[in-house]
Design brief:
heterodimer; A: alpha/beta; Rossmann fold; nine-stranded mixed beta sheet; four-stranded antiparallel beta sheet; 21 strands; 32% helix; B: 134 residues; VC0802-like; 2 domains; six-stranded antiparallel beta sheet; 6 strands
Chain lengths: 435, 134
């Protein structure tokens, strides 16, 4: 049996867990009805009251909440407690207009750090670890979320934040850092910079655990990071609207991310019709926060596409596991009429050893048609003997992409380290198409 | 006669060749021969320098993708038919030429060509027997 932060809860028999979820769901419906005028109106319109919820599947009668709802009620419209009770505010970057703002009561913060404690222990972290947090601190939930959860399990937290990579590496070596929290792309970048400084992360650094998050990471990308650092990486899932990191996370068996199901009730729906899908089917993840006080959400549409496995895990946990999201229904690109997730493109690119892990997807319009190009850095100098070998490499990548996506892409080989690096979420898609 | 050529990957965009050459020469490296052909979105810059191994390492540290290739450096007379003679020796012995270019270095009436062949050791032996040198 693995180390667990709250073993009684994490291994609770499913029948008990579902009874707990039902009781909490009923309470939640009454709570938001009484405290948030927005939900009162929505629930009245739908004719749902707390006593109409008899079984968990009755949740399907509750209306969805969307990101647009949060934006429309900016900044405090969905808070269920007065600001007097709110002790922390976070916000997610608004790429379009206003940010989405969330508030936490003292109890919420305590819950949050418990949830992060669960996921970090599930990933293998302990009070022996020295953890460098290379997420950007600030309104973003990632850094502070991991920070307090890791402190809770007794780890030594080094809050370096993101950026200033050389100093980051120096501290890592001098402090004997054993675990790192960062985005996958930043983890890869730090390893690159370390090598330029003459430091081999595999030999000269002691980082053995990577808590990667905040952006998607293909299995191939993860293997590349593990190889560069000689570390064990786990994935976790969360979003600021829901609480931040702590919604779900992988155990060391890495067969899906365990939800904290006593606090979050997940569903999978058809993104087009809103109908709940059968167990095991893939679709959009919808989450209801069962216990949050400051910013509760009813059936929040995450836009992430995944599936849920309810089988008990080898680690002993009974809480359901979500698959790595195949993409965001938001991120999904429609290229020449074909639905494409950037993660699919990444899987292909990472499988080609001659090119690096940094790439750009460039879309444009020519003669009213979409153009699809990929810029990727050449790593391997051995192909420079002949033009034909470089051309073969381009053809090889294009062929693999065609196999996976059914689309022709133009592959542009770029010089090493010529593409932009990101300390936070990587921006890999450049969409110049006529709108 | 067999010498190491450095091949450098260059993106095809305005001014990039100039930048790369500036970078190379700012490291006090003297380019003795140089070649680049027109292609679409990237090019391979081929150069001959003194101490190519050291230079190749140096170029990698400044983020250029570079590799070493064995080529033949052959001195020839500045007279009609000189290039043809070298090529004929190679062709008659079933050695194929991948590409070639000429050197920037001249001394007296002697010039110098760089030839990339499929069997460089054999090519070197044949040309040496025929009286050619670096």
């Amino acid at each position: 049996m693995e180390n667990m932060w709250q073993k009684d809860i994490e291994t609770m028999p499913r029948a008990d867990l579902e009874a707990l979820q039902l009781a909490r769901l009923k309470k939640l419906v009454g709570y938001v009805y009484d405290n948030v005028p927005f939900y009162k109106k929505r629930l009245d319109e739908a004719g749902v009251t707390a006593d109409k919820i008899k079984v968990l599947s009755d949740i399907q009668y509750i209306p969805f909440t969307t990101k647009a709802d949060i934006r429309d009620t900016y900044p405090y419209g969905l808070f269920a407690q007065p600001l007097k009770k709110i002790v922390r505010i976070h916000a997610s970057s608004g790429t379009t207009g206003k940010p989405t703002v969330v508030g936490y009561t003292k109890n919420d913060l305590d819950l949050w750090s418990d949830l992060v404690a669960r996921l970090t222990m599930a990933a293998g972290a302990s009070d022996d670890d020295i953890v460098q947090i290379a997420f950007g601190y600030g309104l973003f939930t990632g850094a502070l979320g991991l920070h307090y959860g890791l402190e809770k399990i007794g780890a030594t937290v080094v809050p370096t934040s993101s950026g200033n990579t050389e100093k980051q590496i120096m501290l890592m070596r001098d402090f004997g850092t054993t675990a790192i929290v960062s985005t996958p792309s930043y983890a890869l970048y730090i390893a690159e910079v370390a090598k330029d400084m003459g430091i081999d992360p595999r030999k000269d650094l002691k980082v053995k655990l990577g808590l990667l998050g905040s952006e998607g990471c293909s299995l191939e990308m993860r293997a590349k990071i593990e190889q560069a650092w000689d570390l064990f990486a786990t994935d976790n899932y969360g979003m600021s609207e829901l609480i931040g990191p702590g919604v779900s996370g992988e155990c060391t068996y890495r067969c899906g991310m365990h939800f904290a199901e006593d606090h979050f009730l997940p569903e999978i729906i058809d993104p087009d019709t809103g109908a709940v899908k059968n167990r095991g089917e893939s679709g959009e993840l919808v989450i209801t926060t069962l216990t949050k006080e400051g910013f509760p959400l009813l059936r929040y549409r995450t836009k992430d596409v995944t599936s849920i496995d309810y089988e008990k895990c080898e680690c002993g946990r009974t809480h359901a596991r979500m698959a790595k999201p195949t993409g965001r229904s938001d991120d999904m690109l429609k290229i020449k009429g074909v639905n494409v997730f950037p993660s699919q493109i990444e899987s292909v690119l990472i499988s080609v050893p001659e090119v690096g892990g940094h790439y750009q997807i460039v879309l444009g319009t020519k003669n009213y048609m979409d153009t699809f190009e990929i810029n990727i850095e050449l790593l391997d100098g051995s192909l420079l003997t002949k033009y034909s070998e470089l051309e073969n490499l381009q053809h090889k990548i294009a062929f693999k992409l065609k196999t996976v996506l059914g689309l022709d892409a133009k592959i542009n080989l770029c010089e090493p380290k010529s593409l932009e690096r990101f300390a936070g979420k990587a921006k890999r898609v450049i969409d110049n198409r006529d709108k | 006669m067999i010498t190491k050529q450095i091949s450098i990957f260059i993106e095809n965009r305005k001014g990039r060749l100039s930048e790369v050459i500036q970078t190379i020469t700012s490291q006090n490296i003297n380019i003795k021969a140089i070649s680049i052909a027109d292609t679409t979105n990237f090019g391979i810059l081929r150069i001959i320098v003194d101490d190519p191994e050291a230079v190749a390492v140096q170029l990698k540290t400044i983020n250029l993708a570079a590799s070493l290739t064995s080529v033949l450096s052959v001195s020839i007379k500045n007279k009609p038919g000189a290039v043809g003679e070298v090529l004929k020796i190679l062709a008659d012995n079933n050695i194929s030429v991948e590409y070639m270019y000429s050197s920037l270095a001249y001394s007296g009436d002697m010039g110098n060509i760089i030839v990339c062949v499929d069997k460089e050791a054999e090519g070197e032996a044949l040309l040496k027997t025929a009286g050619y040198s670096d």
